[in-house]
Amino acid sequence: MNIHDYSHEHSLLSEYISRLRDKNIQKDRHHFRRNIERVGRILAYEISKTLNYRDKAVSTPLGVKQCAVIDDNVVVCSILRAGLPLHNALLDVYDEAENTFVSAYRHHDGSEEEFTIEVEYLASPSLEGKVLILADPMLATGSSIITVSEALKKLGTPSHIHIMSVIGSTQAVETVKEYFAGIPSDLWVATVDDSLNPAKYIVPGLGDAGDLAFGEKL
Description:
This protein has six helices and twelve strands. By secondary structure, it is α/β, with parallel strands linked by helices. Helix 1 (12-21) packs antiparallel against helix 2 and helix 2 crosses helix 3.
């Protein structure tokens, strides 16, 4: 797996990440979602550089020009609900992409610190031979991405898997890298934090991305 960590690069990504982390700006859900989408569009552009292209003759009002267009079949998969802003960003960029939706959540059995990842809903086309982009804003332990990847295996083998996250932990990056070893894959993460708290949330992170984007859940 190739790791693309933009933690140490100064760009618009670092500007948007600072806004996502700011607990005062977070109070505005609309702007929180928009900032996640902004990060998603930048990472989607970076992913586009790795895709396969073909030449296409395009007619203009004054002639014909050979243009490079994407030759891969792209499938965008978001992990509900926190992944929806990233999903929207990806569809803004890959507007002809197919879509996969997975409902995955932490199931706690009497302890805030111990949990399993449960998948309850999955809607997807065939993934055989396609480029799969998995979008999950917070890569805390890597468990969600791995569980979802296991659930998707019955739908075919993608030609390449891209994982997109806004913030990851050092632990999760290593876990995901190990799981995808030998599989054509890339991890794209805007920034990486070193620590997890006992409840397995990224520290300093930004909090619960789903709650901040859509409101607290019961």
